[in-house]
Structure prediction request, 102 residues.
Amino acid sequence: MAESAPPTSYDLIYNVQEWGMLGNNRFGDCYESAFEHLRMSKAMSGRSPVHKALYRAGFRPPHTPYTEEIYWEYGHSIGETGAQPDKGTSASTFATFALKHK
Prediction:
């Protein structure tokens, strides 16, 4: 059986109107922000008309305070100290952390 050709393009935005910085304009939480943006895209991927309607209406569960909490929790999980650790994120350690907190 012949394999089908991959699509020439694929929409990962799904009409999300406002992605937001999710704290990445103040902290080094680029991986955490990308993770939350992935969740937003997944919610719009056609799995749920309710999610689509909520996102189009402006409801965004992934929001800056939540994303910053994830970032600080990640920092604490790798031994950083302080209430708001901000030493950036390692792709390899964040991947393991994110799989536990999906």
Q: What stands out?
A: The mean pLDDT is 80. The first helix runs from residue 30 to 43. Residues 30-100 form one domain. The two ends are 36 Å apart (CA to CA).
